[in-house]
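The following record pairs a protein chain with its ligand, NAI.
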Amino acid sequence: MADDFDAIVIGGGPGGYNAAIRLGQLGLSTACIDKRGVFGGTCLNIGCIPSKALLHASERFHEAQHDFAKMGIKAQVSLDLPTMMAAKDKVVGELTKGVEFLLKKAKSEAIVGEGRITAPGKVEVKSGGKTRSLTARHIIIATGSDVAPLPGVTIDEKQIVSSTGALSLSEVPKKLLVVGAGVIGLELGSVWNRLGAEVTVVEFLDRITPGMDMEVSKAFQRVLTKQGMTFQLSTKVSGVEKKKNGLVVTVEPAAGGEKSQIEADVMLVAIGRRPYTAGLGLEAVGVKLDNRGRIATDHHYQSNVPGIYAIGDCREGPMLAHKAEDEAVACAERIAGKAGHVNYDAIPSVVYTFPEVASVGKTEEELKAAGIAYKVGKFPFTANARAKTILATDGFVKILADAATDKVLGAHILGPEAGNLLAEMVLAMEFGASSEDVARTCHSHPTLSEAVRQAAMGVENWTMQM
Ligand code: FAD
Ligand code: NAI
C-alpha cells in the first residue's frame, strides 16, 4: 500500500469524509483517517443520526398515544425501548457502512487509527500497537468537537450523561434534569419527555436557545412547556450528589442567591461542545489556535502552517454537519486549484423537536443591532389548510426583508416540517431573491409551504389567506 498521497484527511466525520470524496472526484489521491473504528464521525455515530432516529420514533409513539384517537384510530400503544434503540443502531450501522463505501468509490484509503502530524506533510497513524508513516502535500484536519464539561461534574454516561449516554439509556428515567436549553438539551429532552420522563431544563441565561430570533424562541418555549417540559431559566447547577435512589442536584440563581435542590434519576449535561484537537501534534508543528481553542485559518481554510488546513467543528463557525460538509467541498476545491467558497450568510440551522424550528440569515435582534431597516412578513400555521389536516397548527413563518430593496435577510420557521420548508428560503437567500420573488412563486395546494408564501406576501402587506 502506498504511503504517499496528494492529501491526507484526519477525521472521518461530515467534514473529513466529504473532503476525501470531493478530492477523489477532482482526481487527487487521499487517505481518510479516523480513530473511532467506524467512519461518519460524531454526526453519524453519536449525533445527528441516532438523535433523529429517536426523535422520529418517540414522535410517532407520542402521536399514537395522543393524536390517533382524535382522528378516529383506536390503538393500544406501549413502549418497547430495546427495539427502539435497536432500530436506531441499525440506521447508524447502515449509514456508517455507506460512508466506507463512498470513500472506496472516491478511491480514498480509509484508515482506522489515531493520526498525528509530525511535520508539515507528514502524518503518523497509530493503530493496534503499530505505527504507519504517511506523507502528503496537503493535510486537512477535520477532528471535530467533543462535549464541553460542566465544572465539578463527572459524566459517567449512566446517571450523569452527555448526549452520547442520553442516546442509549436502557430505561426511561422518571425524572430527567437537562442542563442547558440549547439544541441538544431540547431535542433529547423532547425524546425522553415523549417517552414518559418528567423533564426539567435548567438554563444559565434568561432565555432558551440563545442566538435564535427572540420572538421564535419565546413561542418555542411556550410550545415545549405545553408539552410538559419545565424550564428554570437564569439558573446554574452548583453541585450534584449521587444518592441510593438517584441524584440530588443543587441549583442556584445564575447571579447568585439562595440554593435549592432538584431530585432526578438522570442528568443530561448539554452546555455546548468544544473543538477537539488533542493529540494531533499541533504545538510541535506550530499550528496556531484562536482564543477558543479552535484551529485558526484564513478564508481558504489554511492554517498559519502552509499545507495544513482545518474544516468543520474544529474551526470557527456553527458546529453543524452541513457547515462542515460545505467547508469540506470548498477546501478540497481550493486545494485542487478551483474557486471553492462557502456563503456563511446562508447556513441554515434546524432544531428537530416537534414542532421543528428552522432559521437562516439574520434575526430581528441582529438587524436592529446592525441598524438595518427591515420589513417583516408573518403567517401562522393555524391559518394553513394542510397544517389543520395534520393536526399541527402550532407555530408560524417569519420572513425578514430589507426595507429598501426587499432582499430577503432572514427566515425563521416554528412549525411542522420547518427544516424542509426552510430550504426554499435558503435557496432564495443564496440567489439574492426578494420577498416578492417568493410571494410570486407558485406553491402547491394544500401544502405547508403555502405558509411560507403567505408570510412572504406579508412583507408587502398582501397576505391573502388571513
Ligand atoms: P466530527 O463529526 O466530530 O468528526 C471528527 C472525527 O475525527 C471523529 O470521528 C473523531 O473520532 C475523529 N478524530 C479526532 N481526532 C482524531 C485523530 N487524531 N486521529 C484520527 N481521528 C480523529 N449537526 C447538524 O447539522 N444537524 C443535526 O441534527 C445535529 N445533531 C447533533 C446531535 C448531537 C447529539 C450532537 C452531539 C451533534 C449534532 N450535530 C448536528 C453536530 C454535528 O454532529 C457536527 O457539527 C458534525 O459532526 C461536525 O463534523 P466534523 O467532521 O467537523 O467532526
Ligand atoms: P448549545 O450551545 O446549543 O446550548 C448550550 C446551552 O447551555 C446554552 O443555552 C447555554 O446558555 C447553556 N449553558 C452553558 N453553560 C451552562 C451552565 N453552566 N448551566 C446551565 N446552562 C448552561 O450546545 P448543545 O446543545 O450542547 O449543542 C452543541 C452543539 O451541537 C451546538 O452548537 C449545535 O450546533 C450542535 N447540535 C446541532 C443540532 C442540530 O443542528 N439540530 C442538534 C444537536 C447539536
